[in-house]
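BUG: 3D viewer hangs when loading the predicted structure for this chain

Environment: internal workstation, default settings.
Expected: structure renders.
Actual: progress bar stalls at 90%.

Input used:
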Amino acid sequence: MKDACRSFSSGNLPQKIRHAIGALPIPPDLRDVATTFVKLQEERHRADYDLAAPFSRMEVLALLGELDGTINAWKRIRTDDMARFFLVALPLWKQF
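Structure tokens produced before the viewer hung:
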């Protein structure tokens, strides 16, 4: 999922996917969702495995604020064709 999100956030989709979906643009809100997924997964790994780098209350509140914004972005684009394709692509990404 992280690899798929990195690709969607950068707009650099694999050739097979670009060929299949044509010229569908990746909406900015979807790029934000994908970017936030990657960032929050990295922060979760830091929380789980880097005991020397604890989170401050302010860091956690900032991440939660970012997540709130991302949830709102998803609500705006969830019915977009590219957002639907994104959901289908996530579990199948390694096959591309």
